[in-house]
Amino acid sequence: MRSREIMDAVARGESFTVTRDGREIAELVPIRGRRRPAAGEPPAQPDNAS
Predict the structure, then answer these.
(1) How far apart are CA 1 and CA 8, in angstroms?
(2) What is the pLDDT of residue 40?
(3) Are the C-beta atoms of 15 and 26 separated by less than 8 Å?
(4) Tens digit of each residue's pLDDT, the chain (50 residues)
(5) Dihedral of CA 3/37/30/24: which sign?
(6) Which residues contact 20 (CB under 8 A, 6 or more apart)?
(7) Are the C-beta atoms of residues 6 and 29 closer than 8 Å to each other?
(8) Is 7 left (phi over 0), alpha (psi -120 to 50) or beta?
(9) How far apart are CA 18 and CA 36, in angstroms?
(10) What's the CA dihedral at 31, 32, 34, 37 to 10 degrees?
(11) pLDDT value for 39
């Protein structure tokens, strides 16, 4: 998988575990509340929207 594809997946809410030589070394997770809408999906409204 290419880095752009990985970043797009994270933006959609997916998480990844990064490994080196079979050992887990990091986690790549989306920032809460910053999920990018999928194609055709309306943008999320802020919590304080009326």
Answers:
(1) 11
(2) 73
(3) no
(4) 689 999 999 999 999 999 999 999 999 999 886 556 667 776 666 556 55
(5) negative
(6) none
(7) no
(8) alpha
(9) 22
(10) 110
(11) 72
Planar angle of CA 11, 44, 32, nearest 5 degrees = 45
3-class SS at 29?
A: coil
- The predicted pLDDT at position 46 comes to 57
Give me the helices (H) in 1-50, please. 3-11
Question: Residue 18 belongs to what H/E stretch?
Answer: strand 16-20
For residue 35, CA distances in Å to 24, 30, 49 come to: 25, 7, 17
Predicted confidence (pLDDT) per residue in 27-41, tens digit: 999 988 655 666 777
